[in-house]
Input
Amino acid sequence: MSLLLTASLVFQGLAILLLGRIAWTDFSTQRISNRDVLLLLCLGIGALQFQALQAHSWLEMGLSAFGGLALFLALFPFWLLRKIGAGDVKLMSVTPFLIGGSSLVVFSMLLLVFAIATATLVKNPFLLPAGMFRHYVQHMDRKGVVPFGVPISAAAICTTALQMYHAILVATSSGILQQLN
Output
């Protein structure tokens, strides 16, 4: 594997760990910190730049910037109406920089699946195995707060993992490793 690909994979791996932390924090406190979102943005831009240098094309960066801006403009009115939290809007706006513009369709489909699963669990907490989680979800349902950062993070983690798998598969099957031996 090339040095640029390795650096991109390291940045993506760190982003997956950070997304897991964001999901847990949002689940437990209903807060997404600006620091975590900014760090995720930096990791995403870094990974995209390594990929752009390797591919000799900045199109992916442009698609990501357009996608992030479009998501921010689309979700900002919902924040003004208090239908979605500010952290969720910021996390959704940063996600295209993490996954790239070409993977937004995969991310959107996974987000839909995880959002439906989250809504189902909030409305039907008896589906959960442990009493503590069931009690917590019932509490969320009474307060009317649903941690939307959890499905966003889960969809971003799955999309990033698929990208990493594809990058490793292409790097190992293209003969690069045989040439190094």
